Amino acid sequence: MKTAIKMVASWAVVGAALAALPGCDPAGTLGPPVRYGPPGMVQGDGEDFLWALFRLEETRRYTSQIRYHFELQVYDTRTTQRAWTRRLLTVPHDEGGHNATARLLGVDGAVVWLFLHTQPAALSSADGTVVADRVRIEAANPGLQGLVPSELNFYAFDEGLVMTTADARRWRINAPDFKARPYTPASEARFRHLSYMATQWNGGYQTKDFLVRQGRLWERWIGLHTDKEAADVGNDAFGDKLKSPMGAGDDGALARRRLWTARIGKTREFSEGRHDRLFDLTPLPGTAEYIQGGFLNQQGTKAPWLLSQPDGALVLHRTRIDAQGRLALARLDNQLREQWKTVLPCTEINNRWQWPDRLLLLGKEEGADVDAPRLPERLVVVDLATGQLQRNPP
Is 302 within 8 Å of 355 (Cβ atoms)? Predict the structure, then answer.
């Protein structure tokens, strides 16, 4: 059955009217929001906002009816406060609500593509209003009437909405005309990756994915290693240790790392020539030690993120190794002296975004009591000039 997403609002009005009738169950109790799919960075009114889709389960006291609500929550990336919220879809349990899903797919100009339960949707990046759904897509493409898929597995995103229609053809649809054009991926391997990102990946990384332990900082090589790790890195006869962003070896949870410098020279002659390699690793005196420390990487690279105005770098580390430990950030200047240090309300970082003046982190915190339930995801903004934090929830 073809269903325009814009009709969801009228369903909600009808439901509210029924609930107000004598003998009808009042508004139910909402369970905690569960994020569905990866969050996404969207620009609106010249500012960056973090979008995230959540599902909320509503139960009612006097009936067995359960409803599932899909809600878009949009956050200010400067304050972490919620900028606005939009309820996109409500699916009763007996209409497949328990298995209903939704995901952000990608930004296409002034719209954001989503999959909502049984159909694609394009939302305005300014306010989240629905500007296209199955009805609009089929109206713009009469040849696709009845062929637009209703299952998430047939969708991907590649500079626009990509779908495999019921007649086994691939199309890409872009705003603002929503015309379908034949789509050929760069390779089938690439398409499998795009499909995985659109249908299965939940947007989560691990803290270690954002760290490197060595690299070029202001025209010299700097490493962050334990003594044992440094000895391994210094054994660089083939030049492979210099090329690695992590060096060699990993002392794991007990690693207390400090800063090292080294001389860069040449390997012996090989058939393909000589390579750059590390010599004479030396610890830098007067610098701090960091538990499980590493340099925060430049987003999308395996190199340390070099800050400016003034020059600096960030070291991410842990305050202690037991359940009371938290992640912490330290900003170093170009002489590798600490300018500030701040403890984060997180034990793990799942995603991050960066700007010249701030860092936005999405993380989780586990309580000191190992038997306590995990706390919700936290959004944290770090002011790069001062280390001051803003967080949500507080």
Answer: no
